[in-house]
Amino acid sequence: MTTTKKNMLPPGLVNNLQEVLLSRKGGNSNTNNDEQQQKPDAVTDSTETSTSASDENDNSKPVVLVTNGEGIYSLGLVYLVQALVRSGLYNVHVCAPQSDKSVSSHSVTVRETITVTPAEIDGATAYEVSGTPVDCVSLALSGALFSWSKPLLVISGINRGSSCGHHMFYSGVVGGAREALVSGVPSLSISLNWKREESQESDFKDAVAVCLPLITAAIRDIEKGVFPKSCFLSIEIPTSPSANKGFKLTKQSMWRSAPNWLAVSANRHPSSAAHFMSNQQSLGLQLAQLSRDASAAGAARRVSAQRQNVEVESVGAVKSDTNKVKKYFRLEFINKEQEEAEEDLDFKALDNGFVAVTPFSLCPQIEVDIQTAASDWISGALQVEQ
């Protein structure tokens, strides 16, 4: 394992990681379970399932809450939950979005009611939520949904695609882990560096096998009280998880894909333009339009009562302004060639085949030179204004 001089991970956790890495050299016991995981929602063993179900409210087992950004039935989450349940060590609960919210960042749903529905994931207590990953974690930790007061650990993932560098600010899977830290609960976010031309679905199983030792070490050290309380850990798994070179403590880089906005022609590709509007957005717009129409019709009827010469239009009629032309755009991110960078940066370690483990704090420290420059500018600006 490679570490930096300023190691934010406690020595106990580092030692545990070194032990599990040494044990992995003799063979990975998790690979023997591949045949049992042919389907994400398959029941691996009837006895195991019934035992796990009976352990739902077993206070003797640590509670682990799992969420993600891509939806509750995404392969990364399902394979991870199956592995946690199969271990028999944890009381596994799931609260995850019902649809893909992978770029929702730290957004929450306000002034709108979200729906929560039980989900079928064998051996776990699971709910799918119409909101964001942050909604899911916030709701789960509120005490309104689950009977327990607080989980031992929140795991957000496994996400399809890297959250390195500036992508961390967009990432819904990172948002879920960050919300847990805001609430004082230790958390991990896990992402697989998925590449369209190289990756395959079985890589999620390998990714689970890679991160399980770190999850086990984290839970063990949380119970000992030596897991870091001021940060959450972002775990980035390389494109070929089974060929990884080990864990490496890293720092957040400035890496970012280039945003590329594509114009979509509504005339030439009407179905494509409509495709970019989700069912929920479409329904919301329809309801909003009905509300506006109803209000307009109500106002018209009131005016009509006073002025008989005013004709009221039907509720469903909508006047369109033909002079206004809608334009449609779609955002895509294009990976850029990266210049030479320090080996301990997240994306660099990931590209080199390491599992990058990056601590994130809620209060990032401002560099001294940046603090000085900002202070000088503010002082100068205020003097000019005075």
TrEMBL record:
Q: What are the alphabetically sorted keywords of the record?
A: Hydrolase, Metal-binding
Q: Where is the Survival protein SurE-like phosphatase/nucleotidase domain?
A: 64-256
Specify where the region named Disordered lies, as residue ranges.
24-63
Ranges of biased composition (kind: Polar residues): 26-35
Record keywords: Hydrolase included? yes
Q: Which domain of life, per UniProt?
A: Eukaryota
Q: Name one Pfam family in it.
A: SurE
Stretches with biased composition (Low complexity): 41-54
UniProt cross-references to InterPro entries, sorted A to Z: SurE, SurE-like_Pase/nucleotidase, SurE-like_sf
The entry lists its GO molecular-function terms as: metal ion binding; nucleotidase activity
Annotated family:
Belongs to the SurE nucleotidase family.
Q: Under which name does UniProt file this protein?
A: Survival protein SurE-like phosphatase/nucleotidase domain-containing protein
